[in-house]
Structures are given as structure tokens and as C-alpha cells.
Design brief:
- The structure is a single chain.
- With about 220 residues, the chain is an all-alpha fold.
- It has one domain.
- It is about 70% helix and about 0% strand.
- The longest helix is centred in the C-terminal third of the chain and has 38 residues.
- The relative contact order is 0.16.
- The C terminus is likely disordered.
């Protein structure tokens, strides 16, 4: 159970960073040449992005995209995105809460998860999650366009409202595919960083306990 919770927190936490860290988007406005491509000012782009994120993260109950118009189909896609974003944030909150309760209780009662092949739950959570996303990331790197399409087919089954007509939904102009690629890279980097930290902590703990286990009595 601990391994599942750790994997859940690492995965949902890594996904939550580009959702919650708006400066990550602001920093890319220049590099993605959004002002030149859209004819909007930086302030208008930030305002539109902020209003979209306010809606998708539950800070607003009504969809808006600054001065940009939008269609009913476009708004319905962001309603779907809102459900996924809120689900991720709820899973992160629930995982952190359960860990915050579980770990002190186990420590107080002197309970330690039984090692599997000499490693604790953190190691196996990180190894499984890390290996899976190295494979996923590698496949996505080979053809990101196809991975982008597959992602939408998987998480928005039976829908095509994620295919935007920029003339009806110009909000897509401030959310180019390159931005989502950078979000995917950030999520993968954070996930692998946390997985590396968990594996390192497990190996370090194993080395510390080894001398105690082999010391003569």
C-alpha cells in the first residue's frame, strides 16, 4: 500500500507542477513567439491564460479566455480538462494526507514494511513508475504528434472537441503544441528526479542498516 501511495503522490505531484506553476508558462511566451504569432500583447496573453487556468483549477466556475472569443465546443473541451485537473489535484491531496497519517502511525507502532528482495516500498514505487515513464517518454520522443493525438484519444474518448479551429477558438494560438511538449518534458523530469531520490534514499538506508545487521552480538 505504501508503494502505491508513493507512486500516486509522485505521479500526481509531477503533473500538478505545470498546472499550478503559472510562471512556467509566462517564461515561454517569448521563446514561443506568442506575441508575434497572435498579435496580442504579453499582458493580454497572460490574462487569457490566467482565466483559462482559473477555470480549469476550480478557482472560477465560468470559462473565460480574456479578450479572446470561444465556441461552445471549445468551452466544453476545457470543461473536460477541468475534470482531469481537479482529479489530479484531489488525488495528490488524498495521497499526501494518507501518507501524513500512515507514516507517523507506522513509526509509533514500530511497524516497517517487509522488504521485497532487500528493498522497501519507496524503491519499488520509484523503479516501477520510473521505468514505465522512461518507456512512455521514449516513445513520445519518437513521434510527439502521434503521442499527443493518442493522449487525447485516451483521456477524451469519443470526443473531437479538442481539435480546435483557431478562427473560432483563438485561445489555441496561445497554447501551441510546443508548450504541451514542454509540459510533458517537465513532468517527466520531475517524476524521474523524485524516483531517483526515492531509490537513492532506499539504497542509503540499506547501506546504513547493513553494518548493524552483520555486526557480532
Amino acid at each position: 500500500m505504501t508503494a502505491v501511495l508513493l507512486a500516486l503522490v509522485v505521479l500526481s505531484g509531477s503533473i500538478a507542477v505545470p498546472i499550478l506553476c503559472r510562471p512556467f508558462y509566462y517564461a515561454q511566451i517569448g521563446g514561443l513567439e506568442l506575441v508575434e504569432r497572435t498579435g496580442l500583447s504579453r499582458e493580454q496573453i497572460c490574462q487569457a491564460y490566467d482565466q483559462v487556468l482559473d477555470y480549469c483549477t476550480g478557482l472560477s466556475d465560468r470559462f473565460s479566455a480574456g479578450i479572446l472569443p470561444y465556441s461552445a465546443s471549445g468551452a466544453s473541451h476545457f470543461a473536460d480538462v477541468r475534470e482531469l485537473f481537479l482529479l489530479d489535484l484531489k488525488l495528490l491531496g488524498a495521497g499526501l494526507l494518507l501518507l501524513a497519517v500512515l507514516l507517523p502511525v507506522c513509526r509509533r507502532r514500530g511497524f516497517r514494511p517487509r522488504p521485497l528482495l532487500g528493498h522497501g516500498p519507496g524503491f519499488w514505487a520509484a523503479a516501477g513508475l520510473g521505468a514505465a515513464f522512461v518507456v512512455i517518454g521514449g516513445l513520445a520522443a519518437l513521434d510527439f504528434d502521434r503521442a499527443f493525438t493518442l493522449f487525447h484519444a485516451l483521456f477524451f474518448p469519443g470526443k473531437d472537441n479538442w481539435i480546435f479551429d483557431w478562427q473560432l477558438d483563438p485561445v489555441i494560438l496561445i497554447l501551441p503544441q510546443d508548450f504541451f511538449r514542454n509540459c510533458a518534458l517537465l513532468i517527466l523530469a520531475l517524476l524521474l528526479l523524485w524516483c531517483g531520490a526515492l531509490i537513492g534514499a532506499d539504497l542509503w538506508a540499506g547501506r546504513r542498516s547493513a553494518p548493524a545487521a552483520t555486526a557480532p552480538r
